């Protein structure tokens, strides 16, 4: 990364940027969005920081979501401009760009474009989400971040990060840097010990952040997880601002919660008389959260037709879709909310009938719901619209992969602000 940035002529400019680097297994994207929103709320009141940059992954609908300037996804025109400038500077053939053989791979390219954009747009603070892991991530070229933060750690991405929580944590803790403040949410003891050991090696003072008590009175949170992520974001921002004798006040907190735009995470939409509850939950330890939220959000209404939509194509090198679905079914059973329909579909273009039949067997063996397989997300939406014609209150929980939630948002004509 350093060599490519040198080719772009940005080595000195990058070193002048203020970076906040965030890793974790769960909630790191949301935490980054909250950090960005809090800084923008503070900026409205005080003028600092004048401009923020936010880099996250993956995207839901469009690649431009990954790069935000002061809260807004970069325009398609600017994205194309900066992408071509990176390609030209590195003498890259566009067809070779994602290959990783003759230049940066896709994620490296996206990160390079984001840094190029942040320099060109003259952002003051750049909030960076780690791709996977941390220690060997392309984003970890940042040698002098102002602050590093670790969100909830889980056993995830095991082919890359290892088969135990200690190994996963070691990878995440790789973002700690001497001279940078470090913060973490509460972790299981095994993970916390590794974080403390790695912080000690880097001569870093690691602070554990709990959930702020006063957030119980702040509207806009749909789960305890969101309050936890916001609390970490708040602590990161106070650490960034305090050396300048600046601080966040209650107005900043309320503004930040109200203005944050992070679709696909505990999101509710209403379209054509149908209430859509959307939450990306692509690891087994996370899947019970959207089910609990779905029940809380809709249990006050009567005569509801409940529908669950799930898609997650199994990839042995990434995540086990069958395990995830089994956990989802168990969560549904635990809170005694049985959907009338369960729709299973593909989240990519692969033809996977055997896998979907396996998914159907998991549901049929545990739920009394009408379980159906549909060949595409569009077909699922068509079926739901047909059901709505015969029912009054239709509430749909969409959960599973990023691809599924992104496709549903796209087909519902949702625009990322």
TrEMBL record:
<dbReference type="GO" id="GO:0046872">
    <property type="term" value="F:metal ion binding"/>
</dbReference>
<keyword id="KW-0554">One-carbon metabolism</keyword>
<dbReference type="InterPro" id="IPR036565">
    <property type="entry name" value="Mur-like_cat_sf"/>
</dbReference>
<dbReference type="GO" id="GO:0004326">
    <property type="term" value="F:tetrahydrofolylpolyglutamate synthase activity"/>
</dbReference>
<comment type="pathway">
    <text>Cofactor biosynthesis; tetrahydrofolylpolyglutamate biosynthesis.</text>
</comment>
<dbReference type="InterPro" id="IPR036615">
    <property type="entry name" value="Mur_ligase_C_dom_sf"/>
</dbReference>
<keyword id="KW-0479">Metal-binding</keyword>
<dbReference type="InterPro" id="IPR001645">
    <property type="entry name" value="Folylpolyglutamate_synth"/>
</dbReference>
<dbReference type="GO" id="GO:0005829">
    <property type="term" value="C:cytosol"/>
</dbReference>
<protein>
    <recommendedName>
        <fullName>tetrahydrofolate synthase</fullName>
        <ecNumber>6.3.2.17</ecNumber>
    </recommendedName>
</protein>
<dbReference type="GO" id="GO:0006730">
    <property type="term" value="P:one-carbon metabolic process"/>
</dbReference>
<comment type="similarity">
    <text>Belongs to the folylpolyglutamate synthase family.</text>
</comment>
<keyword id="KW-0067">ATP-binding</keyword>
<dbReference type="GO" id="GO:0005739">
    <property type="term" value="C:mitochondrion"/>
</dbReference>
<keyword id="KW-0547">Nucleotide-binding</keyword>
<dbReference type="GO" id="GO:0005524">
    <property type="term" value="F:ATP binding"/>
</dbReference>
<keyword id="KW-0460">Magnesium</keyword>
<keyword id="KW-0436">Ligase</keyword>
């Amino acid at each position: 990364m350093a060599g490519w940035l040198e080719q772009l002529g940005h080595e000195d400019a990058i070193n002048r940027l203020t970076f906040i680097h965030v890793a974790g297994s769960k909630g790191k994207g949301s935490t980054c969005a909250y950090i960005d929103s809090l800084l923008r709320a503070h900026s409205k009141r005080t003028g600092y920081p004048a401009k923020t940059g936010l880099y996250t992954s993956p995207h839901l609908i469009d690649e431009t979501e990954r790069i935000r300037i002061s809260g807004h996804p970069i325009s398609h025109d600017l994205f194309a401009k900066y992408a071509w400038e990176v390609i030209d500077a590195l003498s890259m053939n566009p067809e070779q760009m994602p290959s990783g053989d003759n230049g940066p791979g896709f994620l490296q390219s996206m990160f390079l474009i984001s840094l190029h954009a942040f320099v060109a747009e003259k952002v003051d603070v750049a909030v960076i989400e780690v791709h996977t892991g941390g220690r060997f991530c392309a984003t970890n070229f940042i040698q002098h971040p102002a602050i590093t933060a670790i969100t909830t750690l889980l056993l995830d991405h095991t082919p890359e990060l290892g088969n135990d929580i200690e190994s996963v944590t070691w990878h995440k803790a790789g973002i700690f840097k001497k001279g940078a403040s470090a913060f973490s949410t509460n972790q299981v003891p095994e993970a916390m010990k590794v974080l403390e050991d790695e912080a000690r090696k880097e001569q870093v003072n690691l602070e554990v952040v709990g959930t702020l008590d006063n957030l119980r009175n702040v509207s806009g949170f749909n789960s305890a997880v969101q309050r936890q992520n916001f609390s970490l974001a708040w602590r990161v921002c106070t650490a960034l601002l305090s050396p300048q004798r600046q601080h966040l006040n209650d107005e900043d907190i309320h503004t930040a919660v109200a203005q944050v735009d992070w679709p696909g995470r505990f999101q509710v939409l209403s379209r054509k008389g149908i209430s859509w509850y959307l939450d990306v939950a692509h690891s087994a330890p996370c899947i019970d959260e959207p089910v609990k939220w779905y029940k809380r959000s809709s249990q006050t209404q009567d005569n509801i037709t409940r529908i669950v939509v799930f898609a997650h194509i199994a990839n042995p090198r990434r995540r086990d879709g069958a395990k995830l679905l089994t956990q989802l079914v168990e969560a549904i059973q635990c809170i005694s909310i049985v959907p009338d329909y369960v729709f299973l579909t593909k989240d990519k273009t692969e033809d996977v009938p055997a896998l979907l039949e396996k998914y159907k067997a998991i549901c049929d063996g545990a739920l009394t719901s009408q379980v159906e397989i549909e060949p595409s997300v569009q077909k699922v939406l068509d079926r739901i619209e047909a059901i709505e014609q015969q029912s009054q209150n239709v509430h749909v929980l969409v959960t599973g992969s990023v691809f599924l939630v992104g496709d549903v948002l796209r087909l519902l004509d949702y625009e990322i602000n």
